[in-house]
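Subject — a protein and its fold

Tokens — whole-number codes for backbone shape
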Amino acid sequence: MNTFDITYFIPDFILFFGIILLTFIGFRAKNLAPKWHLRLLNTVLCLMLLSYIPFLSGFLKLTNLDIFSNLAPFKDYNLTCLYGSINITPLNLFFKFLITISAFLASLLSFGFVKKLNRKISNFTSLFLTALLGGYGVCISGDLITLFLSLEISSLALCFLISSFYNKKDREKNSLEAGLKYFIINGVSSTFILLGISYIYMTLGTVNFSDINTMMINKILPASPLLNAGNILFFLALTCKLGVFPFYIWVMDIFKGSNYAAGLFISSVIQPLGAVALIKTACTLGCFGSILNFALIFCSIITLILGNFIALRIVKKEGDIKDFLAALSVSNLGYIFLGTAFFTKSSIMASIYFLIIYLITNFGIWAAFMLIARNLRKYTVKNEISKYESQYGSKKLYVDENLGSIRGIAYISPFFAAIFTICILSNAGLPVMAGFNAKFYIFANILKCGIWSVNTLVFAVFASIISACCSFRLIHIIFQKPDNLKIYKRKLIFDKINIYVFILSSAAFLLIAGFFLSAPVINIINNLI
């Protein structure tokens, strides 16, 4: 069905006018309190989420559950616009919804970390929505050029968003350096993506996804070395944007220098966008058994092992929280990359399911660590501060935000420690949590690809064992007897009702419920692809 329906583009219109509104307010209302800028941002994102209500009944129908059997079925359509450069399908709408809800949760969690921007808060809100606009373009792109331009919009907005936190007197004094590093990495990867697209166009005469799919179905793709070179250049440059091996180092550096709000936005919106771009192009350009296939599998395996080893090393040394979160992000993206690298429908479906579980787990872990960081920044020991000021002047005293600072939280807030532990165990892939289902589903679908895939599975299981060791080590720190309880107040923010505890609790509940109710989600994904 190619009839134009404005319903499919309502979230895009809200997003576009939201960018204009927040930019205008930033120029004309410079004295507006930061909390009002953030409330406007959350309002725009909430309206975007409400615009997906017309599609809710269709998605519920796809679960194949009897209780939703009377609902109207999801429309079977394929709406194309602008000569095929924009393609609206149920899968693309699902990706848009997933990215929107991730951005909404990220904006809620970022509230306490961006209020200090004061007049620069308008830069954060407008750049936040601009990056999301690029993400929408990635989700609905119908050809490689639209995909490339959308990725560039998101990446460039993110460069300035990271740098907007720069303050040489504050913790985020390295934000400018982090933004510059991301700008350079993004520019290099974009160059090779564009080079790969040009090789593909020179060989096929088209960059449209549907045209390339038609060639694949009719088996008329030319066996050209130039086409293989274009595929390899495109996918390897895309791995650079994702932050997987051999281009994972930039993730560690940028997370270290950026604010928690920017780091959360990268791990929950930008990197999943890269995964969406990888999944969309894998469905079109992938060829099972090719040189590209083996190269991507090799990259994903090394990413899994290195990411989990780095995370384990950081936990053992009780290193910086941001370094640990970066390593966690890299290792989890390795699983998404691994499923996509096999270029089969079942493995790609498993990657999408893992992406959903990863986002739930990621928000739970980030909410916990962001609450801990806020507590460390707000409730430093007063007598230590006065002692420091008497010796060194009125400079600020910062408590180190490392994993050692979470020692003994179980003695301070048992409830917080319990729900935090659930998210950590789910990330390790242990049973009774949805993380186990996600990893098992990927491994099971990899085995369907042939006997030779067993070797790949052995390395993936080895990486999962390392991840489990890392998680148990972190849980051990949480339940250790604390060295000093003075750093935490008796009236704790951990036991109060706030957005961090609410999202962490919701994530823990969804991860346990997802272990028993994974079939409906898998049915939705299976019917969408």
Q: What stands out?
A: Residues 345-378 form the longest helix (34 residues). Residues 258 and 315 are 20 Å apart (CA to CA). Residues 381-397 have pLDDT under 50 and may be disordered. The radius of gyration is 23 Å.
